[in-house]
Amino acid sequence: MGRHLFWIDEFRALPPGWSSSFGANLLFNATPRTDAAGNGGGYSISNNLNTAGGVGSPDLDPINEFWVHGGIDIAGNTGAGARPAFLWSGSGGIAGRVIFKNASNVLEILRGSTSVATGVALPTGRYLTFLIHVYQANSGGRVRVWIDKTAAATPDLEFNGDTKESTYLAESFSINDFHLTDWDDIVINTMTVAYDTGVGGVAVAGETLTGATSGATAVVTSVKSGNATAGVLYLENWNGTDFQDNEQITTGGTFDADVNAPTADYVSGMEPNSLEPGNEFVMLAVPNGVGNSTQCDMTGSGAQATGVWTLAGQPNDGDQTEIDGKTYTFEATLTNVDGNVHIGASASATIDNLIAAIELGAGAGTDYATAMTIHPTCTGAAGAGDTMDCTANYYGTFGNSISTTDPTDVSGNLSWGGATLSGGTGENYEGVDSVPTGSSIHVETDTAGERDTYKVNMTSVLPAASEIGSITCVQLSMFAFSDLGGITNIQGVVRQTSTDYDSSNFSLPSTVTLANDIRDTQPDGSGGWDRAALVDPAFEVGFEFVA
Fold this sequence. Notes:
The chain is built from two helices and 38 strands. By secondary structure, it is mainly beta. It folds into four domains: 185 residues, no CATH class; 88 residues; 128 residues; 114 residues. The strands form nine sheets. The protein has an eight-stranded antiparallel sheet with strand order 2-3-1-4-9-10-11-18, with no helix packed on it. Strands 12-15-14-13-16-17 form a six-stranded antiparallel beta barrel. Strand 32 and strand 33 form a beta hairpin. The longest helix has 13 residues.
């Protein structure tokens, strides 16, 4: 067996069989960081791992969750006693292993001695780095496996029955701030039993649930949902005897109800998928609708709104045109007031002066007032004949609301083609509906405090409620940068029940970077995430640019 290394992270007292020092035979020679009581840090298996013998971990009880990091070269002996693997066990009834190279030379995950997933053949002859996450509770658990795909020869893990590829660029996103290029996992779902026709009190954690007819027993860990009359219980330490539909179940306390297992899907009297292998996925949902706040500007997608202003002859002194609330006044003798434009020697020259005023071009103090400020939403350009083409600065339908009028036209020579610009297409969400390869299509602002929120069609992304065991978190992944001194941070925004909930600040560098706003629970205080909260029409996500 090739050289390999295992170590474990668990913030509690050092369990038996693990060493808090990395000896030379374990490839490292450093003491991991711990707290003042000696808890936490990295623990290495005490065995010598540079041998061809099989390597298993000590008992993990009472640890329920741990991370194993390692490096391994799986070349060498693959006999029954020397297949590279990580094994764990515990008194909670869950044991398992990750075999990097089984008898068929492929990656495999076992729960106890039962194979729950097989994967692909990993490359040999080079060192692979990996991460394993194990969580065990309620007689169920989760195993995640990451392999760092540092060369094209490393294939996708793709455990059997998995559909990771359908998760749409999941590998582009950090998983709880850990980002390797290939990952997969297998979940052993928790044990849950549904009940109804209750006539007593609510079950209490630690009580032993007993089936009056079957003799099945299990320990109650918590009430998943419901009340004394009907609901679902989380269980562990099941004795293996099937619960039966409609049989009485009691705990020795006040709980007294009947098993509710009405169909064949309720195997062993448990809810569908209890204690069955499953998978955990990163489901990527992209914005697909206009939200409550649309304050930023879109560029690079859709079309910009435009309009045409015509000057049939010279304006009178004091005539005015107005674009999106900013008024431009034509003067025979220029005075230094923002908005004032000098009347040129011809209609064409006057149009050129107006264009320069809109964009702060050449001619300040002679063709337009030195006090002039640039137009915030539009640009101007010479059109056909004595006309000016006015164009919204940004793409999208917002430009169709930019007003265009001539409030003072004594000469009768001023005219716009319409009361507003027109032809703008696209919405802000279309600028942020994909993982960017650059920054050509995006939304932007030069004003701190502006925000966008977007609708997200979670109904088409999430599986049916009956297929979801739990939702770990909601992660907003924001690709952003800033080249403005007044905007140095971005905040994630989750909108529920007409209220925006902002994250803390994420610093913005001058080049595009990924900021992940991870929400483990619903920000409105409703507790953990569920499908109903995400498919609610009021649910929106977005961001705010802040100083």
